[in-house]
Amino acid sequence: xxxxxxxxLLFGKLGFIAFGGPAAHIAMFHDxxxxxxxxxxxxxxxxxxxxxxxxxxxxxxxxxxxIGYLRAGWAGLLxxxxxxxxxxxLIVTIFAWAYVEFGSLPQIGAxxxxxxxxxxxxxxxxxxxxxxxxxxxxxxxxxxxxxxxxYFLGINEIALLLLAGLxxxxxxxxxxLRGAPLALLPLGALTLxxxxxxxxxxxxxxxxxxxxxxxxxxxxxxxxxxxxTDFVLRLGWITDQQLLDAIAVGQVTPxxxxxxxxxxxxxxxxxxxxxxxxxxxxxxxxxxVIIANPFIPKLRNSPWTASxxxxxxxxxxxxxxxxxxxxxxxxxxxxxxxxxxxxALYVLLRHKINSTWLVLAGALLGMLAEILx
Length: 373
Prior knowledge:
The chain has one domain (1-174, 192-373). 76% of the residues lie in helices and 0% in strands. The chain has helices spanning 2-17, 22-36, 42-52, 59-102, 109-134, 138-152, 157-172, 202-215, 220-234, 240-252, 260-292, 303-331, 335-351, 355-372. It is globular. Residues 179-196 have low confidence and may be disordered.
């Protein structure tokens, strides 16, 4: 019971302050559960990260579920995931209410001005710590760097992960290739009913978000494409501007970007719609994690699957580094934000302070800068 309470309190707290998207969330999880609390070691964390990248859905939320299971069993998986999702959903619901009532979003630019450079520093620190463990050979380091470069050349993230994992597996086990059976890793999705254009209904709202949650890989821009196809073009329930505002709210509030679904649900059906949409888009993640979790520890038992995981881990960190570089322009916008990021990184590396306090300090400094300048 103590372990379960620890899981709920930790991920509930992070649900309120985990700004910055999946890369930042992973960095915060690493700081909290590996470095500070020592619930799991670096290798197990990396294995969970690599395996999570293979299944659809919100990767950081799925990491919460995996960690919750390791710490407190099935209850930790279910309630840990809920503790991370619910605070973010509540915050997005408040934004959606203000949007409907007043026709615009509350101004939170000052807070984000201070938070973004701190998040940037947290990700860099996590990359440094995880990279020293994951890039344990020149081959793996080359793999990670190659994935980073290919990402910026427009290669699909999932293709990069699978190719990197398979390449490392084959190279590290080349002596056993002769006569070895070829094993295929099946990737599946939930079988959902085919929907056709129709007037609003709660069941259509739920199944549309469940479909998206069960097949979506990639970044928030991929989520944007899925949402536009279904809710703007096919169903016609929201406009392009409302969709962009939903994505913006998901990006500037803490927790998973998938809470953009909460915003859309509120727009089309108020509070019940927000709850139904949130349940629909996150439910597949629970199902995938429950199916995948028992197999992850066994992957280390075979030299083939162990090397596959090594490749996935290196590729995951390469993608994480690419996302971090992409964030640089939006996070480090002037000398003050550069100074703030540098100071946060120094504190993280030298004094091992809890990243939560740095996020809160960044928010406060952002508001002070808005007042003073």
